[in-house]
Amino acid sequence: MKSTILKQNTNNSICLNKKNFILLFILTQFFAFSQVEEVKNYEWETVPKFNEIPKEFENYPAVVLKDYRFYENRVGYYTYKGFVVKHSAIKILSNEGVNNFNKVSIDKKYVRDYRDLRARVIKENGTIEELPKERIIEKENSDERQFVFEGVEKGDIIEYFYVIKDFPELSGVEYFQRTIPVIEGKFQINEIPNTFTYAYGYNGMTEASTNKNKIFYVKNLPAYKFETNATNYANLAKVYYYTRTISYDFQDFFRDLNYYADGTNAKTMVKKFISDLKLDDSSIPLDERLKKMDIYIKNNLEIDYQPSYKKIFEDKKITPKMVLNLYKDVLDYLNIKYKLIASTNKFEDHFDEVHVVPQTLSEIMIFIPETNKRLTPFDYWMPYGPPSNVCINNSAVMFRTEGKNNKNVYYDFVTIDSPTVDENLVKTNSNITIDEDMETVNVNKKMETTGYRSYYSRYYMKYISEDKLKDYIKENVFQDINVDIKNYTISNKEYEFNYDNTKPFTFDTQVQIKESWIENAGKNYLFSIGKVLGKQTDLYQETERKYAVDLYYPKKYLHTITLNIPNGYTIKNVDNLVFSKQLKDNENKEVIADFNSIATIEGNILKISIEEFYNFTHLEKERYNEYRDLINTAFDFYKSSVVISK
């Protein structure tokens, strides 16, 4: 019995020792990074010490051993200045790394003064060579200062830092993730007396703040990897920071937004605008009146410099701030109930329900409960109705006001709803003929779009120059296929057609293919008919996935392809053009994505019909391989050919 108890106590002692060691290690790391760094008179270590490089990072061309970003803001009655330190050390691990990282450029635009700028090379044997100041050059006709580390070899460390004296940096964001791993990163910003400094770290940044400084650090940060259809920038390790004179929450963000939208009292102007458009005629459905208002504003008032809100209709110019102001003034005058919504661009920032980060709340919408639609004042290409395309199915904050003069502000977290898959349609019709020389290929291709793609195209058409129009058509209709446009028409390009899906934005083109689609194979010809779709995404090499799949919005493609078979020839292997791949919902087994093609020969015409759709905006990364197979099916069709025989 005694020995059993002794054994248990020994085991418990071992467990406690392990726990204590882990706790001690964590605390040691925390206190090491919570050390406040000098900024104004920053100095580097005479003999630097760097952390070891993990084995999984050794195959990169280089690694960042140190990445420090420090801010010191001084604001008072007699002072208004800031100091910024940027300090980096990069170890070169290959010859490729030498070529990629032996030059450093620093943007000096908008910078008042560099107090210090130093650079050195630490050789593999420990020798330290500091670059003389004359080696730091200013590039001609550029806002850059540049220094080149000459004689750098594999195994060397290049290190540099600079101190900027400028106006205070009161808000911003620092991204720490790079295309190579970061072994150690640190962010620091001081608290200005009698103010509130807020800083929030994301995606691996750990907080180690003190009473007077906000501090975040990161260790062994993997390299950034871009992935197709992913929220790449939102997933980067970063720190947002901002300063306010009072404590700040979501209600304060709403008040700031309201204050931003409150312009000069212009009731006479607003009343006349409402009267001229008959926006106060209650016999007309509210939906139609809001549509009329939106069409007029976005058709007639250009976003431009405008010093006077009262002159927007006279000058036909308006600022984004004034657009929000005008929408609110009209709605308030007509006593139309509305709620302001704020969300993030989900591809750049995840929505944070715990902390208010004003810089990330870029998607501002005015929600009309009666019509269940939105006005998007800052997105001039967007019609009244759907939400901004970068925040579909994303979290958002919706504000409501109550009480006298709407002084009481409340908010709820909501999810931005999604349009249907049929509202975002791309429809193409391609008619292909081959000349008697069996080399020249002519295509008449018509492309019709509705939904977000058509909204943007109509907006873009207002500003594109004539000399760039053909390139824009090539990019949209043929995607990287080299063509000579012989003739084209563009229809339904006016803004008001955003409200009528029966009038899609349309390119109608006649082109000659300028690349080889026909390959002579003895008595036969191999014809690359799939290329008429335009280049498709190839995910065959993207086998590993780090992030979930995220799309902007649900969408559908309908393609019709007809090939006029040359006289005296026949088509073989039509079955090569038949593809079918589906993606089903895990819960109800409903098809949420599909690529399906059918090919038939009718007389001397080969006819192909394709339906492709994606009725989702988010797919967990565990299902990436299924999504990849579907995307590659479309790519396989793009690469497909038919045999034309005599």
UniProtKB/TrEMBL annotation:
InterPro entries, sorted: DUF3857 (IPR024618)
Superkingdom of origin: Bacteria
Domain DUF3857: 86-212
Name this polypeptide is given: Uncharacterized protein DUF3857
